[in-house]
Write a structure and sequence with these properties.
Rossmann fold; eight-stranded mixed beta sheet; seven-stranded mixed beta sheet; binds 5'-O-[(S)-ethoxy(hydroxy)phosphoryl]adenosine; 3 domains
Length: 647
């Protein structure tokens, strides 16, 4: 066991060379209090503005005059900031390194080449009628053209909505409908772990429900023979050379939308988290520079898919806004062998490596030899993101991958926050395994009790942020009311994160996980309500309740209680069917790990499902079920306990 007492001090050489050492961190904390306007202005000054902002921050979380605006009179273009401004010095420097699913397939794109590809794709979009403000849905594998597609949208002021390649046709259709997007960018197929992903076929299926989508731009990637719909489908390789290799960047207001990214909440359908141009890019850029202590020429590798926010901020926008070199990996950690990550690090001489605890736990189980047979001496810094990292995994990462020398930045943030909020700075913060440590300067976390009362000192509670930061989401697309209700009404005047958290005597934050009905499965964020609605859409299911339970590798697993309709027999074959059904309805990553047949669900007399009890049963915490006497029928609990599925 690891105690809070285990502390890893900042290595002296790192502190000496870091962008931010302990003194600079303290100075930033003091400055943001004394001169917030100046502090935030300097963060924005990292970017190239067509018109620099004079209005820095205008924020109120109060219901009457709720508003979040940063740099609101500034004008800039994101793609110019990520590409054009680097061209004079870095035209021939590598912007993107690509490593394919199969070892031996890799390539690079220089800043000059990236500029040409982005301009050409932007011109294709324009030629097809895409205009500033239009929503473009992107459904692509992890390939450089995914970054190109995002930047091409940004170049002309179109709003991208990237949908993770693991989502099913139904999920894609829902996301296209919600933002009324008329244009889709996809590929014939993707590759993942030696298998093919039928991306274009999924789009064809999804578009049966979205007849208004007029155009699909398809990238030939694997070369598979896929049907094309005349008049609708265009092949990138056929049109790329028909347009100019130059496309002037569209001047955008700082508060113009940059992208929508759908994420799961505790209720209802996924929310379209909307990020805007100036604040988002400033925050992605600054956090990348500060937290990864990025130095010119270093190869940075974030293993997240661009379909999630981590891929947006730290595969594409953060690294490129800094003129950095970002590695895009098409594959998975264990293909063809569990050495793959470490081989890629040696092959491309990666300096900074950023991944998720779930990958580390899976690789840790395969034994140290897969790691230690590689050199790894190019590594300088390690990072973790997406879920709490258990101290065992942290220590393994530190010892086996980091050779007991490399700091690990455990970065806490969310789709909603745009970039990191609570994280160590490698040159400034002593590390405690399992703690995301301290807030970045200007970020104001607090812990509150159920009534919203601030809790002081070493304590545990719900994590809120009491003030804004530039990368904060601005709205839920199409539903501003839902934005306010979801995040600012539980604890009036504060942003509620949905996370539980402990703070120790040193002021270190330890995220304990979600306190709402969101679960984190292999670093993928899922709403239990979404899985429930997929299950009840099956003809045999009367009712379903889904909770998370601790899972050794995935962090959390999906545990589903299912009540069948009268007369339906509960068989193993049906159980398999239901798992397949959820894979098909949402995507493979949402498939239940466990299905328990539930003749009844524990409900209050008013009919509300008591999820707390279901969680305890799934977690095998049978001693702490709490008071069940208020249930409409307490005997259902006995049945659920007796027939609990082993996890
Ligand atoms: C969890 C991913 C502990 C947390 C960037 C949060 C973490 C949710 C950490 C957001 C971390 C993310 N330690 N928990 N370092 N990073 N989380 O929107 O529960 O996919 O609320 O954003 O992941 O997930 P999302």
């Amino acid at each position: 066991m690891v105690s809070d007492g285990q502390v890893f001090p900042v290595p002296a050489d790192l502190a000496r060379d870091a962008h931010i050492d302990a003194a600079a961190y303290d100075a930033a904390l003091a400055r943001v209090e004394a001169d917030p306007e100046g502090y935030w202005r300097d963060i924005a000054a990292r970017l190239d503005w067509i018109t620099p902002p004079t209005k820095i921050k205008d924020v109120s979380y109060a219901k009457e005059d709720f508003r979040i605006r940063w740099y609101e009179d500034g004008v800039l273009n994101v793609s110019a900031n990520c590409i054009d401004r680097h061209l004079p010095a870095k035209k021939d420097d590598v912007a993107l390194v690509f490593e394919g699913d199969e070892p031996g397939t890799s390539s690079t794109l220089t800043y000059g080449q990236l500029h040409e590809e982005v301009c050409r794709m932007a011109n294709v979009l324009k030629a097809q009628g895409v205009k500033k403000g239009d929503r473009v849905t992107i459904y692509l594998p992890m390939v450089p053209l995914a970054a190109v597609a995002m930047l091409a949208c940004a170049r002309i002021g179109a709003v991208h909505s990237v949908v993770f390649g693991g989502f099913s046709p139904d999920s894609i259709a829902g996301r296209i409908q919600d933002c009324a997007s008329h244009f889709v960018i996809t590929a014939d197929e993707g590759r993942r772990g030696g298998r093919r992903v039928p991306l274009k076929a999924n789009i064809d299926e999804a578009l049966k429900h979205c007849p208004w989508v007029g155009k699909v731009l398809m990238i030939r990637w694997t070369g598979a023979d896929v049907p094309l719909k005349a008049g609708r489908d265009i092949v990138w390789q056929d049109v790329r050379d028909t347009v100019s290799a130059d496309c002037p960047p569209e001047p955008m207001n700082a508060e113009d939308p940059l992208f929508i990214l759908y994420t799961s909440g505790s209720t209802g359908k996924p929310k379209g988290v909307l990020h805007t141009t100036g604040g988002y890019l400033a925050w992605a850029s600054w956090t990348f520079w500060a937290v990864f202590d990025y130095k010119p020429g270093e190869v940075f590798w974030c293993t997240a898919d661009v379909g999630w926010v981590t891929g947006h901020s730290y595969v594409v926008y953060g690294p490129l806004a800094n003129g950095g070199t970002s590695l895009i990996f098409e594959g998975v950690p264990n293909y063809p062998t569990p050495s793959r990550f470490w081989e890629v690090i040696d092959k491309h001489q990666v300096s900074i490596f950023y991944t998720a605890p779930t990958a580390l736990r899976a690789l840790m189980r395969e034994g140290d030899a897969h790691v230690t047979k590689n050199d790894l001496s190019s590594l300088r810094l390690l990072g973790s993101v997406g879920e709490p990292i258990n101290p065992e995994a942290w220590l393994w990462y530190h010892r086996v991958v980091g050779k007991e020398k490399l700091p690990i930045v455990d970065t806490w943030w969310q789709t909603e926050t745009g970039g990191m909020l609570i994280t160590p700075l490698p040159g400034a913060t002593a590390l405690k395994p399992g703690s995301a440590s301290k807030p970045l300067p200007g970020v104001k976390p607090q812990l509150v009790d159920a009534e919203g009362k601030f809790l002081d000192g070493a304590t545990e509670g719900n994590l809120v942020i009491t003030d804004s930061w530039p990368g904060q989401m601005r709205t839920v697309y199409g539903d501003h009311q839902r934005f306010f209700e979801t995040y600012f009404s539980t604890y009036p005047g504060k942003y509620f994160t949905g996370d539980g958290c402990r703070r120790d005597a040193d002021g270190y934050y330890w995220i304990t996980g979600r306190v709402d009905d969101v679960i984190n499965v292999s670093g993928h964020r899922l709403g239990t309500a979404e899985i429930e609605s997929a299950l009840v859409a099956h003809e045999t299911v009367a009712e379903a309740a889904v909770v998370g339970y601790p899972h050794d590798i995935k962090g959390q697993g999906v545990y589903a209680y299912v009540t069948l309709k009268a007369g339906i027999e509960a068989t193993d074959a049906l159980r398999k069917d239901l798992v397949l059904w959820v894979r098909h309805e949402i995507g493979p990553f949402a498939a239940p790990d466990v299905i328990q047949w539930a003749p009844g669900l524990p409900k209050t007399r008013s009919g509300k499902i008591m999820r707390r009890i279901l969680r305890k049963i799934a977690e095998n915490e049978l001693g702490s079920l709490g008071d069940t006497s208020t249930l409409a029928d307490p005997s259902v609990v006995d049945d659920l306990v007796k027939n609990r599925a082993g996890t």
